[in-house]
Specification:
The complex is a heterodimer of chains A (about 120) and B (about 120). Chain A contains no helices and eleven strands. With about 120 residues, chain A is an all-beta fold. Chain A has strands at about 5, 10-15, 20-25, 30-40, 40-50, 55, 65-70, 75-80, 85-95, 105, 110-115. In chain A, strands 2, 4, 5, 6, 9, 10 and 11 form a seven-stranded mixed beta sheet that branches. In chain A, strands 1-3-8-7 form a four-stranded antiparallel beta sheet, with no helix packed on it. Chain A starts with a strand and ends with a strand. With about 120 residues, chain B is an all-beta fold. Chain B contains no helices and twelve strands. Chain B has strands spanning about 5, 10-15, 20, 25, 35-40, 45-50, 60, 65-70, 75-80, 90-100, 100-105, 110-115. In chain B, strands 2, 5, 6, 10, 11 and 12 form a six-stranded mixed beta sheet that branches. A four-stranded antiparallel beta sheet of chain B has the order 3-9-8-7, with no helix packed on it. In chain B, a hairpin with a 2-residue loop joins strand 10 (about 90-100) and strand 11 (about 100-105). Classes of the chains: A mainly beta (about 120), B mainly beta (about 120). The interface of A and B includes residues 35 and 106 of A.
Chain lengths: ~120, ~120
């Protein structure tokens, strides 16, 4: 157990639907990062939150959004899903100081399949 | 642009032997971090080793060590005494800082097979 919890582990949904992926960071970590891993694009950074505030966006589609709540858990919302959104979505956390005390800790991912 | 290149899509090694995975990166920063992550079939991303760019000494974690060549922007991973459990995808990553944020930039990965 890495200390970063992602739910659900697997998700199968139809095109056009909306899903929410959840991430609880490791205790004490203020930063949450979302990554998408697909066969053709590899691991791509989506978005970074620090203590509830959005800090940076990467290759995140407009159909996707995220937020970090006061208890520091984060949710990634994916809407109007397309077949190409099928991927493994990772959440990672860090202490947010930038000093990499423990590096970035990844959750076990959510496997999203859009049919 | 900051990029990470892993030129070996696949590698194989005999159990108990040594293997080296290559990684090169491109950056204009002078202070940064580099990482190797392991992704076994379970899909979990596991930190193997990290290197601070300001440290000239190569990082070592048990059977895993790196050869960090800052001028050449090279960061290879050496696995000694390979074990069956080392079979996995290995990703090299660079931490990019930008403003008040940071992110990991990953290479495409190297699939390592360990033969008994």
């Amino acid at each position: 157990d890495s200390g970063v919890t992602q739910t659900p582990k697997h998700l199968i949904t139809a095109t056009g639907q909306r899903v929410t992926l959840r991430c609880s960071p490791r205790s004490g970590d203020l930063s949450v990062y979302w990554y998408q891993q697909s066969l053709d694009q590899g691991l791509q950074f989506l978005i970074h939150y620090y203590n509830g505030e959005e800090r940076a966006k990467g290759n995140i589609l407009e159909r996707f959004s995220a937020q970090q709540f006061p208890d520091l858990h984060s949710e990634l919302n994916l809407s109007s899903l397309e077949l190409g959104d099928s991927a493994l979505y990772f959440c990672a956390s860090s202490d947010g100081t930038g000093e990499i005390a423990f590096g970035y800790t990844f959750g076990s991912g959510t496997r999203l399949t859009v049919v | 642009a900051q990029t990470v290149t892993q030129s070996q899509p696949e590698m194989s090694v005999q159990e108990a032997e040594t293997v080296t995975l290559s990684c090169t990166y491109d950056t204009s920063e002078s202070d940064y971090y580099l990482f190797w992550y392991k992704q076994p079939p379970s899909r979990q991303m596991i930190l193997v080793i990290r290197q601070e760019a300001y440290k000239q000494q190569n990082a070592t974690e048990n059977r895993f060590s790196v050869n960090f060549q800052k001028a050449a922007k090279s960061f290879s991973l050496k696995i000694s005494d390979s074990q069956l459990g080392d079979a996995a995808m290995y990703f090299c990553a660079y931490r990019r800082r930008q403003g008040g944020s940071e992110k990991l930039v990953f290479g495409k990965g190297t699939k390592l097979t360990v033969n008994p």
